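Reviewer 2 asked us to include a model.

Predict the structure of this chain.
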Amino acid sequence: MYFQLNHDRAFGTFPLKGDALSDALNMALDVGYRAIDTAQMYQNEADIGAVLSMSGLAREDIFITSKVPVEQYSDKTFCASVEKSLEALQIDCLDVLLLHWPPADGAIEKPLELLLEAQQSGLCTHVGVSNFTAEMLRRTTALVDVPIVTNQVEFHPLLNQETLMNAASETGIPLSSYCSVARGAVFRQPLFEQLANDYNVTPGQIVLRWILQKGVSVNTMSTNKRNIAANFALQHFALSHVDMARIDQLTHHNVRIVDKHLVPWAPEWDV
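Predicted model (structure tokens):
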């Protein structure tokens, strides 16, 4: 499973570009990150490639995920766009290639076909999806006979994703998170400060540890080295069942960051 590939904590790169991206990614590599999440839409693949080429790290030690946007879901453009990503990243093959969004009409059959074509062509090792609903995960397992290693979705303690988690368990398609701290909204909840004091960690570490203990891999982005290091250092403590349940209670707020106001082509989310 995706979060069992020793890359359960990835460094997210949106919306960083240029010097800001280079500085942050170098700090992330310094503290131990080896999984990097990007996308064609982020327009920073070349910046990432430049950092990695200068890092001195072996290619096999880096785990790179990128994503193809909806506008490239055609026979003429899909694989060609991935080839451009590889050129920008200065690599021969992606570790994971994701569909960034389902099409607005929900017709996932053709994009999945193109995704598998990219894998069969050697452009990526693993394939996955992003922003798929529970119903789409079920359809995916009926359509695809290779492992789908992740469904990258908004996931944090202020959003109830129980329906999607049940579908992930049913289909064997694990979840990975973005908006892992709800763009800071989680820190308005006093519980995280209280638990941080109890465990002698930061509030952010409490949030991210909760996500990991849900069986969901974590993508986080920061430009602050102290926060980057804290976001990575999650293995030295574990939340009790009682405290996990206390955090679970916050999901009733159902704060969704990425909704149709932000992304008009987003699907009808599970409730």
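Residues 18-31 form the longest helix (14 residues). The chain has one domain: 2-253. We have added this to the supplementary material.
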